Amino acid sequence: MHLTKSSPAVTRRNQRLLRYSGIAVGCAVLFGVLAVLVQTCWGPLDRFDQGWVASMHDYSQSHTVWTASVQTLSDIGGTVTMRTLLGLAAVWLWLIGARVLSGWVATQALVGWGGQWLLKLSFDRPRPHFPDPVSHAGGPALPSGHAMASAITCAVLVGLFWPQAHRAGRTAACAVALLTALAIGWTRVALGVHWPSDVLGGWLAAGIVLGAVTTAVELWRPGALARDVRRVNWRTRPRVQRVLAAPARPAPFEDDLDGLDNLDGPDNLDGLDNLDGLDETTGRADNAVR
Fold it and tell me: Are 177 and 193 in contact (CB under 8 A)?
């Protein structure tokens, strides 16, 4: 079945739900396949894991400066750092009034943390073991917590930045996020504390969390994320642009934004008339014109 924007049966909200749920289901299916291959010790995957970890461990032993640099990068991109970034983003969004978006960010962090340990305890996969390890890590191996947390954090931050950026900014943000997630996942293999399949499992688990949480929020509060994104856009616009964008005559704020977004019904603009200082800014702009 081919879905297009012109299809009357498919609204934009339905398209969003299909996209987010598709990400969650697709990643869940791939994670399930990976888990089966890991649990059954599938030969090609087992040889790939063993070969990569052994070669990286040998290299790390003979290049101590390089190993120290990799360890530093791994520590900087650890789960605590990533969840702290999400926590700070959630607090900032809450303070500017984007409450649903703030809850979405916080939930990504909490569900990611809980899901990580639920999966680890379920599979209880042993980590690589060496008589002379170059690094240490505790707990089961699958999935990699570093890989999962960094993928969730990078995706969320790009999602918050995306509506405010032009094409070049979006491309740069995606590139930085992708390289960050890849680098942090790679450090765990290079230090010999995770199998490559653990890192892949962490990225797939992150996709499950991102898609599932976003789908749940869209079902719970249809259109609320889009409204909060517009709120963030308004709050972060330079003050001069806000004055210039204000109407030349007093008018209700809802009328000024009439037709801005008809994505999800008449309640799209609920609460936007509470943006701090909007009426005062408009009044000062009118006085300046007079």
Answer: no
- Strand, helix or coil for residue 239: helix
Q: Which residues of 60-93 are buried (b: 16+ CB within 10 A; e: fewer)?
A: beeeeeebeebbebbeebbbeebbebbeebbeeb
The answer to whether 201 and 144 are in contact (CB under 8 A) is: yes
Query: At how many degrees (to 10) do helices 196-220 and 12-39 cross?
Result: 150
> How much is the pLDDT for 201?
96
92: Cβ–Cβ under 8 A, 6 or more apart, which residues?
none
Q: Rounded to whole angstroms, how far apart are CA atoms 49 and 43?
A: 10
pLDDT tens for 190-229 read 999 999 999 999 999 999 999 999 999 999 888 888 888 8
Q: In this structure, what is the dihedral angle of CA atoms 217, 267, 157, 142, given to the nearest 10 degrees?
A: 10
Residue 50 carries which side chain, given as an amino acid letter?
A: Q
Q: How far apart are CA 51 and CA 201, in angstroms?
A: 18
pLDDT at 247: 53
pLDDT of residue 269: 38
* pLDDT score, position 231: 84
For 30-71, the pLDDT digits (tens) are 999 999 999 999 999 999 999 999 999 888 888 889 999 999
pTM of the model: 0.78
DSSP 67-118: HHHHHHHHHHTSHHHHHHHHHHHHHHHHHTT-HHHHHHHHHHHHHHHHHHHH
Who's near 282: CB < 8 A, 6+ residues apart?
A: 246, 247, 250
